[in-house]
UniProtKB/TrEMBL annotation:
It comes from Albula goreensis. GO terms for cellular component: cytoplasm. This is Uncharacterized protein. Gene3D superfamilies: NAD(P)-binding Rossmann-like Domain. The lineage of its organism: Eukaryota, Metazoa, Chordata, Craniata, Vertebrata. GO terms for molecular function: oxidoreductase activity. Belongs to the short-chain dehydrogenases/reductases (SDR) family. It holds the Pfam family adh_short. Signal peptide: none annotated.
Amino acid sequence: MFHKSSFLSFIRNAHSISVMAAVALIQGASRGIGLEFCKHILRNKSPVAVIAACRNPESAADLAGLADQHPGKVTVLKIDVNQEHDIKNAAEVVKKTFGKVDLVINSAAMLHPSGKGETSLRDVSGQGLVSTLTTNTVGPLLMAKYFSPLLLKGSGAFGQQPPEKSKQHSGIIVNMTAKVGSIGDNALGGWYSYRMSKAALNMATRNLSIELGRSRPKVVCVSLHPGTVNTDLSRPYHKNVPQDKLFSTEHSVQCLMNIINGLSVEKTGKAFAWDGSELPW
Ligand SMILES: NC(=O)c1ccc[n+]([C@@H]2O[C@H](COP(=O)([O-])OP(=O)(O)OC[C@H]3O[C@@H](n4cnc5c(N)ncnc54)[C@H](OP(=O)(O)O)[C@@H]3O)[C@@H](O)[C@H]2O)c1
């Protein structure tokens, strides 16, 4: 039987963990860049709680391994970003368990349901376009809808905090974008669905930065481009990429975490590439 005093100390410990630890939520955590964000944060931040969200937790073997390696620090939750109720349920669980979030990384995306971007209008289908926009654009915006109340309760554990209270932030939203989503940078065309989904995601980033920048405390929101990274998403195009331009997930995430660790309210509402350069909209 649970003795009353050990029960009380359990409550105190749970409370102090939720208050003290930085809480990072990564969605699209089963593979690729999202999985590497989980590994990197677990290696480099302490005390920390990592919430790894993916659409099939029961088959996410890498996340199960990570949870074994870091006992008590990894919570695996189900979020299919195409299912609004998954996002709402996950936010309720996070609210009950941690009461706040300090960092949300929206990593899940697809190039196109076919696995390859359209090369011309001939390849465009309504269904392909809608599926890509639903996952890449609608998903991250709904994540912001349900998690921003928890980000407003964050302790500003990621990024830089200036001394002035009026300029401090409580949490950070990172939307993983792509350079090909930049309208100003588009000289080649093609990839209608993916380019449009990331351009619209960038607009969501800007809108969120304005709405969540009015509140006090503020939530910082940026779009980040990871470079061309050696993952399943870019696999069909690897043979066209020079070796030194195809990044490992470790290298890309190290660069992106350097940017995240340097974020402040001055940088909100912008898009940055892996090397810290600002991307044109
Ligand atoms: N790799 C690159 O070169 C590159 C370049 C520029 C930008 N990016 C961006 O970086 C981010 C990460 O890409 P990546 O290269 O890591 O891709 P990836 O290796 O293909 O992984 C995609 C991830 O998204 C998840 N996902 C897909 N649809 C989902 C849904 N409906 N609900 C929840 N999760 C879903 C996948 O989960 P399952 O395991 O369940 O399928 C997987 O975890 C994306 O936003 C991508 O656009 C990547």
